[in-house]
Amino acid sequence: MKKLIVLFVIFFQGINVVFAQQTETKEKEKEVDLNEVVLVKKKKAIEQKPDRTIFDFESQAHLNSGSVLEGLKKLPGLIVSDVAGMMYQGKQLDVFLDGRPLNISSNDLNAFLEGMPANSIEKVEIITQPGAEFPATSGGAIINVITSRRAKSYLSATYSSGANFTNNDKFRARFNNSLMLSSKNKYFGWQLNVGQNYRESALWSTVTNRANNTNTILSDTEADRIGRSTFAKSAMTIDFKRDRLLFNYDVNYNNNDSYVLGSGLGFQTNDFSKNKNIRQDAVATYQKRFDAIDKKLDFKFNFIRNNNDFNLDSRLMNANVLDNSSVQDYFNFKADYSEEIKILDEGKISVGTLYDNLSFETKQDGTTNLDYTRRTAATYLEFQSSYKSFDFILGGRAEDYSIKGKTDTNDLTPFNQFRFFPNASVQYNFAPQIYFNVNYNKKINLPSTSSLNPNNTNYQNPNVNYSGNPQLQPTIFDNFGMKISAFDYAFIGYSISSAKNQVINRVLENSNVVSNTSINVPELKIHNFNVGLPIPYMLFTKGLKETMKFDFNPDKINFLYAYAGYQIHQIPDLDTKGFWIFNLMSQIVLPKDIKFITNYNYSTTKGNYYYFVAEESFSHSLDVTLSKKFLNDKLSISINFDDILNTNRQGFGSSGTDLLLQSKSDTRRFGFTLNYKIPTKNKLAKEDPNMLNKNKKEESNPVLN
Prior knowledge:
Blueprint: H1 2-19, H2 21-27, E1 30-33, E2 36-39, E3 46-49, E4 52-56, H3 68-72, E5 78-81, E6 85-88, E7 91-97, E8 100-101, H4 106-114, E9 121-127, E10 141-147, E11 154-167, E12 171-184, E13 188-209, E14 216-240, E15 243-264, E16 267-289, E17 296-314, E18 319-341, E19 346-364, E20 367-387, E21 390-407, E22 415-431, E23 434-445, H5 449-452, E24 464-466, E25 475-486, E26 490-510, E27 513-536, H6 538-547, E28 559-570, E29 579-590, E30 594-603, E31 608-609, E32 612-614, E33 621-630, E34 635-642, E35 649-654, E36 659-665, E37 669-678
Parallel strand pairs: 7-10, 24-27
Antiparallel strand pairs: 1-2, 3-4, 4-9, 5-6, 6-7, 7-8, 9-10, 11-12, 11-37, 12-13, 13-14, 13-36, 14-15, 15-16, 16-17, 17-18, 18-19, 19-20, 20-21, 21-22, 22-23, 23-25, 25-26, 26-27, 27-28, 28-29, 29-30, 30-33, 31-32, 32-35, 33-34, 34-37, 35-36
């Protein structure tokens, strides 16, 4: 009993440390400059909300020193791997960019996120409880990557750059540069963000058959890869008194080469692959505002085109092995209305509608082998209310689906259904920013076009092949969760996700030939327990009593943030085991305000991730970052040392087979990142307030969304 009391005291001591900054922050919220009042919002490294967790990338050097993908891998509780995909606290993630779904996954998603420098990201939201206003097709959870916004009065500019170097088998380099230009006045604003990313990397992969206690290497490959990415993001806003018209156009171009040496049972290869991808995204939004500031009406139209070409040439035979391409077009129209109404003490009603259409066509050697279309029509209604210390959310979303298509040999299994998706949440507030929340929602996950694509868009050889499955069916989720959270940094949570027809990656072996595809699992349950706790180091030097007397800002103190999560995947007719994920992030403020940040990740072995068994820790790395700001915070420089112990590797067994799948990248690297806010001589160029939305909708970007 005494141990339990001590743990409870330490848990809420971490809470008290964060709470102590509230008085100091409030005193800084207003700053008077001549006749202007400039609001200043102090950012938090981690912010817990009832339906989401927000991670600030912009001010955390250990997150923005590489690519977006590398930064995401450092978030506590987030799994990113070639085998596991992207999952947060047991929930498969649907990826959004600036509040809009990317509609890409698998290798295309990894290449897209790897091509974006992390210092172009402001923050990342992980929405664990998407309400009725979010598409039911978001599945279990949403990760919303929000790009940097620095809209100012008059013209401003920010330059960002970074470089990383590795020296495993040979010296390799990565460089990224970007420039942000923005301007704003009382009538309109515009913004342009352009950049490039060049990266050299290596990947070593081995597939071993361990049948009959004999190790037979079926495939052993070494890939020397070069990735080139360029992007441009443009936006314009026009103000009409209260109303606003927004235009966005983004384009991303990826050109990736890979030189692969392969050998294995009965073969030897020397191949070259080229993968080109162009993604264009155009949005028009009209925001109607009324005399009552709580009343809002938004109309949004979005069109996305994604072109992908993949070629594989054999340099031994001097011949083309694969020539695959795909074109995906997606358009979306949505309307959302909300206003406050009297429900109990206070309340709000939200209603909206959506219509979207996706077409996906794939070709192999110029012949169409998949023609797929998907149409969704939806409407939703959601109520929010409060009564004394309780907050309530009750909503429902109705969606009608029409999915059809054909391959070069037969028609796809059609999916024409009308479904209703309820959601509910009850929260009890013990005190400001201390709450207990219980929630439920039903969701659906439509198979991604990457999973459907019958063509191979990966390296393959005579013993290993990849293919999609055009006959995949949608997945239905029932998600339950509960969480107690205090002042953003401390929390304890439990969730269970029950899925029917879950789409998973399956690796099988037949006569020493390995096939990698996607299948539907009839039933699946994922249990997840997680806890996060800040621990100030002065607790050990000054004791609990003295520590509680201090009134300080956690951004200026030395502390350890500890996270632990446990997951177990339950699959009928399969004996599964759970696994733990641990993350420790330490901050030490050195003299001259130099921040020394250490990030350590580790996952236990022998646990099941769907049909895979982790025989090596799939998340094991030690990263160190040193950062400092100069020139009145206009220039920030960080130096990073990633995967110092060179332990970041993957090793999975595949249930029902004797296979061992191993892979290792050149993750041990050294680099630096800098961000420079180019000063302006115009004294009126003040930073606009970067206030987080107070409602349940996506954290929309006022300029770039």
